[in-house]
Protein 1
Amino acid sequence: MGVFASTDDPGSTGHEQVVFCQDKQSGLRAIIGIHSTALGPALGGTRFYPYPSEEAALADVLDLSRGMAYKNALAGLDHGGGKAVIWGDPEQLKSEALLRAYGRFVESLGGRYYTACDVGTYVADMDVVARETRYVTGRSVEHGGAGDSSVLTAWGVFQGMRAAAEHLWGSPTLRGRRVGVAGLGKVGKHLTGHLLDDGAQVVATDVSPRALEWTRTTYPQVELVADATALVSSDIDVYAPCALGGALDDDTVAALRARMVAGAANNQLAHPGIEKLLADRGVLYAPDYVVNAGGVIQVADEIEGFDFDRAKLRATRIFDTTREILRLADAEGVPPAVAADRLAERRMTDVGRLRSIHLR
Ligand SMILES: NC(=O)c1ccc[n+]([C@@H]2O[C@H](COP(=O)([O-])OP(=O)(O)OC[C@H]3O[C@@H](n4cnc5c(N)ncnc54)[C@H](O)[C@@H]3O)[C@@H](O)[C@H]2O)c1
């Protein structure tokens, strides 16, 4: 296990701690990244993915754990940012021994890092990890967990979208707007339901025939189009990327007819210059990590003993946070993601600083 520590300001890109974990027998190779514990124990999921190299795994965990620090800060949680990656193909490598070995490394951090699900890991895996560590959330309902986090993720995205609608059109509703949903998976289907309830028209697409069939049956009023390219160039007011990351690249932005982008997908901007391109085209971008925080709000609530109503109330506050970020962006003449980063850094500094008040 190798560890290095940084004394950087928590608001900078410097990580507090990065831990390399190996258990040869089970094949476990994991890296745990703790960006900041300024607001409390780091919280973020475990990604199990066949990275091409250790460098790629390290780059991803550094990036993801930093993103979690900002997401958790803006979600109003008493958690810092952390994330872990297990390097390898989950189909071939995942076993009880590997997950439990991983759990022991999480335990060895003494509560500086709480883990949960991410790409390649599921609630059932967290139940196995939990046999070796107390510092795990996102567990199955049978084990006191909250279950599927997509319910509150979709609710939070809807709240962020409502705030952006108010900013753009003066009223916090999507009534009468055409919303393009790319990805009718766990989050996209719940989001579609909220939008329809609110009186929006939904245009959608998915690559999965099963997802399309489910939508046709459940929401026959949804207009389905061939693919995301057709969706972005269609006559929509709002684009909601709810599939994979990198949904907004140069070509997509050039073709986009929507005035707003707000969706669940992580890391929507293919490169940092995209936000300026969106702004230049008069497109309002509600930062992904602000509006999709409902899932982490849910797993954080589970640490207290899950209460759905309390967690939903917290996810509803994504409306206020998004509104505040858009107001700040206008006031400071910066894109919303820059305003969001500033707000997150302010909370990490203002609240993190309180630990310097001596108690005993
Ligand atoms: N589930 C959560 O709580 C949560 C929380 C935060 C962020 N997110 C992010 O939101 C996104 C959606 O999450 P999910 O849980 O709904 O995942 P999911 O796997 O259930 O759904 C994704 C859907 O996108 C579809 N898809 C894949 N490629 C596509 C393409 N090129 N065009 C159109 N559709 C495509 C898939 O067929 C699938 O139906 C992901 O980026 C995820 O990281 C999810």
Protein 2
Amino acid sequence: MNNTNPLLDSFSTLYTTAPFSQIKIEHFKPAFKEAIQRTKVEIDKITENTEAPTFKNTIEALEFSGYTLERLSSIFFNLNSAETNDKIQKIAQEVSPWLSEFSNDIRLNEALFKRVKFVYDNSNTFNLNGEQKRLLNKKYKSFARNGANLNQTDKATLRDIDIKLSKLSLQFGQNVLADTNNFHLHITNEDDLAGLPDGTKEAAKLTAKEKGLNGWVITLDYPSYIPFMTYAEHRNLRKKLATAFGARGFQDNKNNNEKIVIKIAKLRHKRAQLLGYKSHAHFVLEERMAKDPDTVKDFIEELLQKAKPAAIKEFETLKALAKKDGISKIEKWDGAYYTEKLKKQRFDLDQEKLKPYFKLENVIDGVFAIAKKLYGLTFKAVDTIDTYHKDVKTYEVNDANGHFLAVFYTDFFPRKGKRNGAWMTSFKDQWIKNGKNSRPHISIVCNFTKPTETKPSLLTFNEVTTLFHEFGHALHGMLANTTYPGLSGTHVYWDFVELPSQLMENWCYEKEALDIFARHYQTGEFIPEELVEKIKASSNFMEGMQTLRQLSFGLLDMAWHTGKLPENISVKTFENRAFAGTQLYPDVSKNCMSTAFSHIFQGGYSSGYYSYKWAEVLDADAFKYFKATGIFNAKTAKKFMDNILSKGGTEDPMLLYKRFRGKDPTPDALLERAGLVSAGKG
Ligand SMILES: [Zn+2]
């Protein structure tokens, strides 16, 4: 029997990449146990140090502790997302509680906090640079925001609130899921499916079969719900489905979420006040680029004022189109259907015609070529780096001076064991220790159209922008150049992290960039100008109404989290107040958004919904600068690289942004791009 565990030794692979081919499933659990133990020893060493706490012996030591655990976790959880199986999932269920218990132990470690606090309180005496100050602040806050400064009674109250909140969030999600699963639309007359694409019909038939039913079944799951609302001609069935969707968590049954919503909002408020914040939103936004609720509210209000006239105009067009079908009062369940109809009339953009211009290999070469033009990077395919699946490709990335920058993995095709969607991740972060710059290992994982025996992988335009988006995140990771891993690359505030990714998408809409790679895979001809124009125009379609909708969710989120709730108010009344001035369709009294708003009551988006639009404002504003100077302008690109891509979270993001841009961001560029205002002068 061999006793060595490849997950615990420092890897002897090229660039110390993860040694996938040596890892066996039975290595994981013992490795986690050992890695946690090693981290404990490192932390004990910090707390048992008899010297007075300093930045170096406490904050920096803490930052560089747990290396083995960090690498192991990233390898394991990346595998669990991209190449999982029953065994890996079972291990994940076992080790996740170990990890959360261990991180709780650290957070509640009073001896450790005492040292951290000492350094924090005496920070002036340590002569710290900007990055060190950020790290100190981050470490201190990670304790303080979890109650480390409270007395024992308040600490107990906080723990009690946290337990209640996590149970309530879980219950909230289970209730939404139960109401989602409890409803289906059973159709036995094929005429009722008029308008649906063949693929949707087939899927509905399959769903019926799975449920042991004849005919077709439409459910409230997005892949079933969305196409039905978009294409089904049968208005009453659309109404039935939409009303059921909007009633999730809001019915007279055991899944009702009204009380839970109120409880969560009240507990969050209480928690924030206990920690000395005015409200939950104040607590959350302290660690965001936006900083405080007023900034967010002003931000939403400004966009709202600009988007509303456009939204009203679009709404009138929809109404007119519906009227032709004899609909005198347009309702929520007509929205997607008439929007799609209008889109077809206006653009008739056939995705199948676009795809031949986007052969996957060409798009990859294109994004590499653009990275070279902008940042001087070169990508060399190498087959000597270990991977977890034969579809994974690896590259050695060098900077403009030919110095090794990063290892880059790509994993593009769907398969059993890979979750849906697209994401960027890392197997190893970047840092500088003892003068040595340790470079990162970055990966992007997608689920793109697979090649067939006769056809290469031809991407839809949506897949092209997805690839550029994830590549933008990857650049943030690869170009990272900071001392501390916790501030490196994409370790930035939540409302800042989408800037590099969304910015990158802009190149997909520029003829000058498309001409580098968008060539017909059979004839080699360039993508026609007219198609590019259509892509651009259709991407802005109904942007006013879309924007209004997003902003209304942002307002609702902020309303629930900014102050003390009024006494005895119903969820529906509260919601309608928050929505005032943002609703175009008539209200549906049986429906409620809050009771199924999983982003904020189940997931981690509370006081953060605005960040979708916030990031769009930033990327449009940043790209405007590129457009003004030339989309391949080396100087502009260098400014972006030096001030943003390489800096991670080492400084306040607004300062970094202003240093790149030379001024504050404004929403003008977004509004222009979205066609909501005409382009201004200057
Ligand atoms: Zn993203």
